[in-house]
Write a structure and sequence with these properties.
401 residues, alpha+beta, four-stranded antiparallel β-sheet, 26% strand, elongated
Amino acid sequence: MTFTAAKDLTATEVAQMFADKTAASSPHDPLNGEGSFTGSLTGFNGTSSSNALTLTGTSYGPMSTVSVSGSVTARVALTSSNVTTQAAGSNGTAGVYAQQTVSLNALNTGDVATIGGLTFTAAKDLTATEVAQMFADKTAASSPHDPLNGEGSFTGSLTGLNGTSSSNALTLTGTSYGPMSTVSVSGSVTARVALTSSNVTTQAAGSNGVLGVRAVQTVTLYDLNAGDSATIGGLTLTANTNLTPSEVASLFASKITAGREPGSNLGAFSGTFVGGFTGVSTGSTLTLTGTSYGPMATVTASQMVSGQANAPKAIALINQFISQISSTQASLSAASTDLNSALDKSTKLVTSSQKTVDDIQNIDLTALQASLQALSTQQSLDFQVISQMNNAASSLLAIFR
């Protein structure tokens, strides 16, 4: 089943389109001309929460992971082609202000758009109309203000122009009579994809029934400073104060198992936990136990520290990881040295043992016989010499006969 967008849509809106089309009851196409579907998806019913589409099989038993793919059109934040001069302005005609229109494009999280010296950085996916409204609010002739709902942030300033917006068009009007230069614009966008296999997580592989066998996973948590965030299975905790690892684990356990929200002084959760687990905490460890029998996919986990104030924290975490890696490398190096030493000793023992075996097995019979003959001759000569000695010596010789 393929969806083609007819307008700029956020990830949440796309998930809702697929959920509406695959709903268990009353499935339907998009209602407001956002796009159109072709093809079909069978064997699953869909629901959505935020940007997540959950597909549930319509029959019991395991099912293969659904295949996904997509394509995106090339996009830009802003270029000079987005600017149109509406009125050049005049020095001699009272009331004639310069006027320009800037056509805005949609921005995704992290994208940047600059008009004049005023730069906007998106904190969430925004449509072109929303971006135009942000700039209009910031440059309004009366009561200019920053975004109200955490959509993004501004740096720098735009002087000599006041802004209004209509749809995706930002109209800038000079604040004094006379012509004005065309406003400069620029921007940058982050690389993006529509869908890849990394977007899919198996929540339950399906089991024909192994009683008592539940999946169990553990997550080791770290401390969070104010402004830091940690994400487990789509559920994000953003700290409003400094939290210890034990506090972080406890907050996640309470939220996952009982849906309990933390106090506003501690932090706030966003997103939805996906995974089918209950959670308990012991110290800094969060233990997740499946709510049904059978295998379950590993939950995703990540942590982010942000801001200049948290740079020491980030450095400390990196140093901790480096220390762990160095310690492991040292252990492996020591083990490698011991193994090489043992190998050298074993090789020398093999060589020595083989020489002894060769000496035993490869006897030179000719040389041995010659040596024995020489010894026999020498002995005869010795006896002859002794026999020629005095009688006392001869009597001693009798002892050896």
